[in-house]
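Friendly challenge for the regulars: who can give me the structure tokens for this chain first? No prize, just bragging rights.
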Amino acid sequence: MSEKVFFLGMIAGVYYLFSHYLKTRGRFSGDTVLTCCWHAVFSAIVVFVPAVLLAVGMDNRRGAVLSEQLFTNGQMAFGILAALGGVLYALLRGCAVKAEIKNGLNQVIKKDMEWSSAIFSTMLAASIIMGVLIQSYVIQADSMEKTLLGGDQVLLNKIVFGLPIPFTDKKVFKLRPVRRNDLLAFRFPSQDPDEFQCGGKQYGKDIVKRVIGMPGDTVEIRKGKLYVNGELDAFDTFGNYIDGERYPKSNRKFEPGEYQYLWENRRLGNLLREKAMDNFGPVTVPPANYLVLGDNRDRSCDSRQWGPVPEKYVQGSVVFIYLPLSRLGVVRQ
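First reply, four minutes later:
Bragging rights claimed.
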């Protein structure tokens, strides 16, 4: 989301720079056709930016936003349609108004430049905050009940696991490492846009699950009971089971190492389907990876199906619910 806000802010910034360039050459010293058209461009930007953000927000609530994609065709079309309305309004109304000229500058353009500068500064600051410090996120499904409910709007602490270095998989200035039971926000761990998991394509989607297995841990589920490093996890107090019966264990026989290989390569879920829900593993979490599960274990598509989450996909930790107000508060971890 921070990239989207930054891009939209840059549009206002580019408008301001070109306006300054034209101003220094005296192009706004009178009531010219250029002045009228340039004001119409600003009107288009003022409408386009919130319209695209509105479209993104609406798609986000439906779970249709991909972090790998800047804007969808539908979002851009909505923004362009709104921008055309802004241009039409400016041409029909603004160009008929005689603007005052002070110090060789049309005062309408002066106000447009002031507003474009303010929009650019505000959205630049917002993109930095969202990209580095905190970010809002809407819980899409019931896989994290009862901790998080579908429709909850939460804040992610993005700086806790370090600042990402652009165009690399590295992070710096980590406040702390990822810990077991953290509520982790991450991008779906796949490079293939056509990969089919959990009944659909998950590529580029942002997901929230709980960390169960740390690098090097051996994790197994037997009849719905969680075992970590061969011992029953007595601290698995977040797991919520709502079905009265457990899925039986698969009768499929695996060669040594085959189960681990299929799991690491996100092929296990499509092979075993629901039989990987209650009888899973054992698998060993690879270095710089995490095994994550949903708190609503019977309604969650997670590491049991699509494998471990590499460190490079981690975005932050869920820390606070701000909407609805009835659920306002710090998230239990």
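The CA atoms of residues 59 and 65 lie 6 Å apart. The longest helix spans residues 33-61. Your move, everyone else.
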